[in-house]
Amino acid sequence: MAYSFPEEVLEHVFSFLHSDRDRNAVSLVCKSWYEIDRWSRRRVFIGNCYAISPRAVIRRFPEVRSIKIKGKPHFADFNLVPDGWGGYVFPWITAMASSYPWLEEIHLKRMVVTNACLELIAKSFKNFRVLVLSTCEGFSTDGLASIAANCRNLRELDLRDSEVDDLSGHWLSHFPDSYTSLVSLNISCLGSEVSFSALERLVSRCPNLRSLSLNQAVPIDRIACLLRQAPQLIELGTGAYNAELRPDVFSSLSGAFSCLKELRSLSGFWDAVPAYIPAVYSVCSGITSLNLSYTTMQNPDLTKLVSQCPNLQQLWVLDYIEDCGLEAVAASCKDLRELRVFPSDPYEEDEFDIALTERGLVSVSEGCTNLQSVLYFCHQMSNAALISIAQNRPNLTRFRLCIIEPRSPDYLTLQPLDAGFGAIVEHCKGLRRLSLSGLLTDRVFEYIGTHAKKLEMLSVAFAGESDLGLHLVLSGCESLRKLEIRDCPFGDKALLANAEKLETMRSLWMSSCSVSFGACKLLCRRMPRLNVEVIDETSEVAESRPESFTVQKLYIYRSVAGPRLDMPDYVLSMEEESPDLIG
Amino acid sequence: MVMRPWDPTTMISCYARKQNHSRLSMAFQGDLNLEATELRLGLPGTGDHERRTPPVGVGVTKNNKRGLPELEDGHREESTRTTKTQVVGWPPVRSYRKNCLQPKKTESESGGGVYVKVSMDGVPYLRKIDLKLYKEYPQLLKDLEEMFKLKGGEYSEREGYNRSEFMPAYEDKDGDWMLVGDVPWNMFVTSCKRLRIMKGSEL
């Protein structure tokens, strides 16, 4: 086009597009827009590290500053993915080390990160600023020492939920005295004690520190002096919060908290002693996020604390909150948007140890009109309650319910919970994420396939009666990207009938279902851009497995990189198993 | 052992048994008469329907303990309640969550307080209390009354419970069920493993 805008103008316009989807759409308009987008894309999100090779990403987007990569499937969080499965980030780091010298941010989730990776990061990226390792593993505190020692411009170091080989707390002392740019530090997953004086000096010389999540090893009587050095904190994760009550410690702590005028988020509180909790009351009115899911604090102290936070938007808590506590939340926390209630003792034999039932969730759904996101573990549920919740909160976008005993029916009527979940998908038209539990027939999948048009992620366990269930979901859920299924009677028919659908999704996980080896091979042959991986930990040799053999675990994902080369011996790529077809 | 041939009603009554007491409190029990098809592991004829029937060594008396003859050696609920075979990855809770809580529980139990579970017949949940917070029986009983919203009875050292609707019992270290108040307070605190509030109508 003769009179099109100069590239710089278009680039400037594109810089206002922040979502990947928008930028992807823009890149499809014409070749010149594709090129402009390519050269100006600064952030890349790789939802599955095996969907594309590092080289391909670098080739297309040569000027990336921030990358986010995810590795293992979600069910790895619950020990369903054996060790050594994969998700190694090293190939990505090596490729980027030579091609992205100006890389500033690396965000990883469920990946294997070694000390070698961390050392390479520390050496290769001169302007490195942000390292977020979410649920990662494979590295030790020695690797952290490299980062601390070499990344002069580091702003964020966030190790959330990662499994770190914690050799000692000495790594923290590797931050040089000249280093002052820390903005966010999250070491809550580490066990060892870090040198407190090093921590204190670090905090005091970093004036931009806004987020600090300590680990359990930091005792309560030390928090006050840290807080005094950082009154500008917005997020705080305390360390252990227990000790014999000492008035001097209490008043010091209380005074320190009252100086935190900008604090919005609180977490930690391991072993919280109720007597020390009032020390935080002064900040409660400003708190928007509260994570009490590690504390053994119970009612009435627990409810009392939560009820003091009228501006609360996000609450993560254990079932110690009980129904009465949630009623109080419904009455006091009118701006609540996200609620997560975790089980204090998931394997408790006495099922009714805690007075938390469906009633708590119903109360919150009634009282909190902005509630959008729910994760709720409980022991009993009814269709009536689910229908109530659905009618109260049609604005729900995430609804994850875990009734702890598999296949539990509606406890009032003993019916399956199909109608209840059906109401959820019918009323909550914007629902993007759903996790099912309880006794469910194929009916619930009919409702989901019919109504859940915006659903992107679905988790299913111990549900359904036949292949029809899976078929209804795959054929009906237009926006589905991730599907994870365990212990359901779903098999070959539904999978093969919806083979094309699988390429429109990021991934499908099925374990303890009824899919045969033969069907996996067939699927792989039919869909060249799907990687079909069978995980089989039995000792039988692959060749001897008959077509009818039921696979233990199956992970299917779309990829333009072909089958991966780093599979352990218990992962079989169906690509290798299927003979080449002629023509 | 009475076993019924498997049929759908048996499956339902399996759930009914588990949910029994909560359903009791919902007052649906009468309509469905599920006891007729209920799967039970007990001698035929033993009639106790309460979920938390504690096992008792009938007639066994050591150290002059006054055992509770009312409680029959029927359903050994403690041992027959199927230990949940832990399904891998279920419930879907991340391991770091499980790790950080379990040790804390025992700490709280062995550290400061003496925590015991308190169950009450017909109530669908247990409570936990710290016996260390009390110095004498009347205090404890008053709290139990408040906790479970009971109309209290009168207790005296000599006569035990008079004209009360409920009777608190406790399981001691030997697994025997005793009446609360039988032994000196300090001995009670050290030997009590769990409490159960029994309805007067059973007595």
TrEMBL record, chain A:
Pathway: Protein modification; protein ubiquitination. This is F-box domain-containing protein. The keyword Nucleus applies. It holds the Pfam family Transp_inhibit. Residues 5-46 form the F-box domain. It is found in: Nucleus. The keyword Nucleus applies. GO terms for biological process: auxin-activated signaling pathway; pollen maturation; SCF-dependent proteasomal ubiquitin-dependent protein catabolic process. Keywords: Auxin signaling pathway, Developmental protein, Nucleus, Ubl conjugation pathway. One of its GO terms (cellular component) is SCF ubiquitin ligase complex. PANTHER family: F-BOX/TPR REPEAT PROTEIN POF3 (PTHR16134), PROTEIN TRANSPORT INHIBITOR RESPONSE 1 (PTHR16134:SF66). One of its GO terms (molecular function) is auxin binding. Signal peptide: none annotated. InterPro entries: COI1_F-box, F-box-like_dom_sf, F-box_dom, Leu-rich_rpt_Cys-con_subtyp, LRR_dom_sf, Transp_inhibit.
From TrEMBL, chain B:
Keywords: Auxin signaling pathway, Nucleus, Repressor, Transcription, Transcription regulation. It is found in: Nucleus. One of its GO terms (cellular component) is nucleus. PANTHER family: AUXIN-RESPONSIVE PROTEIN IAA1 (PTHR31734:SF242), AUXIN-RESPONSIVE PROTEIN IAA17 (PTHR31734). Gene3D superfamilies: Phosphatidylinositol 3-kinase Catalytic Subunit, Chain A, domain 1. Residues 113-200 form the PB1 domain. This is Auxin-responsive protein. It comes from Trapa incisa.
